[in-house]
Write a structure and sequence with these properties.
A 6-stranded parallel beta sheet has the order 1-5-6-4-3-2, sandwiched between helices. A 6-stranded parallel beta sheet has the order 11-10-12-13-15-14, with helices on both faces. It is of the alpha/beta class. It has 25 helices and 21 strands.
């Protein structure tokens, strides 16, 4: 029989409970703050359920009633500069952070509701009702509550989706030399989601001051923890990543507070992340005012057992035993909280004149419908004073450069000039500049700002998003291949792309996402896509696609100046290309939203980007057609040069859109639809398109070539246009 030795986890796993001595030793002001926040949150949630029952809450009402102890216990001692984020059931966390911020955790229980407290209650309720005075101007609603000033980074409707963003905030806190921490709240369902586990690994590897706070309420919607995992003690997840982990009774707010203090000591001293599992219980169903037993997945006895452990009653009982309050005082606290909520409701709701006995939202409080698209992106005012240069118009001294050297050169220059820029991605710190040399020498010069990541796109893309939202850093995230965006789709599209608009249209998201198209390199179906079409139809993103080294410099500089997330697409065919760039100048920006006319002509407008611009020019020479070739440069709806395109179409009356990739994810399909809507009266024939095939490129050299477009396919497209001219 082989020799066996028991292995112990690298970090401690601790169960924490309070004793009578802990309650006696607790600061009376701390207990008063707990009691106050618990009752304010409970009254708030009861009001939300009441309004939801009247159909005044549009969408879900995920009540936190029963779970308040975990939020209050962990947040009541935090600084305003500490941060939290959470999930769809996050009213209690948001309110605890906001109330702690405006009161400093100091409450007079005889005069509970000060003006700042009343404002927090009303603005939060207004947000949940979708009203303009809410914290996110009504756009966030119940599941997207954000108030940066208070350290509330935003709750999140995607289970586990906010965790990588929180880690990005923690990275910014650490590297800004603060001792602040971030706590991310999520439930039992999220512990089995990849983004959470990826982030645990990343936070542990990078020693981030980040707490993974698991509110284990025993159920997803109706599926129990025991059904969904082999280890129902969910804090065990942390041990596999070398993270100190704690388990605590979440119905005991003081126990949660003491555990959080232990975790804070680790995080604030540079010890890295922690995991806290608080066992809590939602008294109602996943959504709405009915208990889980009404739906058959919980028993009434189970619910009664947990209700007897109500955190509000626990704190009140202990304070009464210590002589800090009496039953009448507790009743007064509850009455004041309820009165505050009645006052908040009265400001937002009125009797419905068209339905006797019913109420309605005050009509003047709804957001103006003209606000619907405001803030999808910024207004580009940050580029107003930029020094711009269009290489097509440049007449100064030129030098020869490889395209890829311009890529690494401009990034080096910007990192010299702006210490906010952080580069992260797989292998960006190794191999003398990543897999293609695009980050050459950056690690040597900017060691702590060039971060080689694990293979975990969801985690490091989201971490970059959290950095961007924090505002102290400007992340440049590299996806080695664009197909990997599907791995990180939640962070790329649901989080980063939507964040500005979703949270009210105010907060910038200055993130650059670099990736390369590698069609023709033989890497097969899961490495070779063109992402332009996907990003162009996803809100919030700007897209640039340079075809020359000189354009790359100007476009990357613009991308790094914008306050929006920007996708920078590169192409491996261009990396080794020798181009001419302005001598000694890596600081100019390409004019915002300006396309480049690579060839003037009268017969057809050929529109393309990246390496297909060169293929288009070659095809024009082969056919002899007098085509005008336009290099888009900027590809997203808000940045595209409609003026240049329109001038050309009015002249040629024909359009050929050229791209290399597959039909299904085509950029040209969207563009063709937009062009025919804008310029239909000037088109003498249907818009023609050159694309790859329906299939993704495969490994076989001949099948890969058959699946993508190059010069020959552009020639065929031009001949189709020529035949259309003859028909007219």
């Amino acid at each position: 029989m082989p020799k066996q030795r028991r292995l112990d986890p690298a970090q401690p796993w601790i169960q924490v409970t309070t004793t009578a001595a802990d309650w006696k030793a607790a600061d009376p002001q701390l207990l008063a703050a707990m009691l106050a926040e618990l009752h304010l949150i409970r009254a708030f949630e009861e009001t939300v359920l009441e309004l939801a029952g009247e159909s005044l809450v549009h969408g879900p009402a995920h009540s936190s009633i029963g779970q308040e102890g975990g939020a209050v216990g962990s947040i009541v001692g935090l600084r305003s500069t500490d941060a939290i984020n959470g999930s769809h059931r996050g009213h209690h966390q948001f309110l605890a952070k906001a109330l702690t911020h405006v009161t400093g955790s100091s409450f007079d229980l005889a005069d509970l509701v000060t003006e700042p407290v009343q404002t927090v209650l009303q603005k939060t309720l207004a947000e949940i009702l979708g009203l303009a005075q809410g914290y996110c101007a009504g756009r966030g609603g119940s599941m997207h509550l954000q108030w940066f000033e208070a350290g509330a980074l935003g709750t999140n409707a995607i289970v586990g989706g906010g965790v990588p963003l929180g880690a990005g905030n923690a990275w910014a806190q650490k590297h800004a030399k603060t001792t602040d921490v971030t706590i991310s709240y999520f439930g039992d369902g999220a512990v089995n989601i990849g983004s959470v586990l990826e982030t645990m690994n990343l936070a542990s590897a990078w020693k981030l001051p980040f707490a993974f706070f698991i509110e284990n309420n025993g159920y997803a919607v109706s599926t129990s923890v025991a059904e969904s995992t082999g280890e129902p003690r969910l804090s065990a997840r942390g041990l596999g990543f070398g993270i100190p982990s704690f388990r605590v009774d979440g119905m005991d707010p003081l126990a949660v507070h003491l555990v959080t203090q232990m975790a804070e000591q680790i995080m604030r001293s540079g010890g890295g992340p922690t995991v806290i599992e608080a066992e809590v219980y939602r008294f109602f169903h996943q959504n709405g005012p009915y208990p889980g037993s009404a739906f058959g997945y919980r028993s009434k006895d189970e619910e009664a057992t947990w209700r007897a452990r109500d955190p509000l009653e626990r704190v009140a009982k202990e304070m009464i035993a210590l002589g800090q309050i009496d039953s009448a005082g507790v009743a007064s606290v509850r009455a004041q909280a309820q009165a505050a909520m009645k006052k908040a409701v009265a400001e937002l709701v009125e009797a419905d004149p068209e339905a006797q006995g019913k109420r309605r939202i005050r009509p003047e409080l709804w957001p103006d419908t003209d606000f619907v698209n405001v803030g999808v992106r910024g207004d580009t005012s940050e580029l107003a004073d930029a020094r711009t240069l269009d290489p097509l118009d440049y007449t100064g001294e030129l030098v020869t450069s490889k395209f890829v050297d311009a890529v690494s050169g401009v990034m080096r220059r910007r990192m010299e000039q702006d210490d906010r820029i952080v580069v992260l991605g797989e292998d960006v710190h190794k191999l003398a500049g990543g897999t293609n040399g695009a980050t050459k020498n950056l690690k040597k010069e900017f060691d702590d700002r060039v971060l080689g990541t694990p293979i975990s796109e969801n985690a490091f893309a989201g971490l970059g998003g959290g950095m961007a939202l924090d505002g102290r850093y400007r992340p440049v995230v590299e996806f080695m291949y664009p197909d990997f965006m599907w791995v990180a789709a939640d962070q790329v599209f649901n989080q980063i792309g939507k964040a500005r608009h979703m949270f009210g249209g105010v907060n910038p998201v200055p993130l650059v996402l670099r990736t390369k198209i590698a069609m023709g390199s033989g890497y097969g179906s899961q490495h070779l896509m063109d992402p332009a079409g996907i990003f162009a139809t996803s809100p919030g993103w700007r897209i640039v696609a340079p075809s020359t080294a000189a354009d790359y410099i100007g476009l990357m500089n613009a991308a790094l100046a914008l306050q929006d997330p920007v996708l920078v697409i590169e192409h491996v065919d261009l990396y080794s290309q020798l181009d001419e760039i302005p001598a000694g100048d890596l600081d100019y920006q390409l004019p915002f939203g300006k396309a480049g006319v690579r060839r003037e002509g009268n017969d057809v407008t050929v529109i393309s980007y990246l390496s297909m611009v060169r293929h288009s020019l070659e095809a024009v020479e082969l056919t002899g057609i007098d085509a005008e070739v336009i290099d888009l440069r900027w590809l997203d709806r808000a940045s595209i040069d409609w003026e240049t395109l329109g001038q050309s179409i009015r002249k040629t009356n024909a359009v050929l859109i050229v791209e290399q990739g597959a039909q299904g994810t085509s950029y040209g399909g969207w563009l063709a639809d937009e062009l025919q809507r804008r310029f239909f009266d000037y088109l003498d024939q249907p818009i023609e398109r050159v694309t790859g095939g329906e299939a993704s490129p495969s490994i076989s050299r001949v099948l890969e070539r058959a699946a993508i477009a190059r010069t020959e396919e552009v020639v065929e497209g031009l001949e189709r246009v020529r035949r259309g001219m003859g028909a007219n």
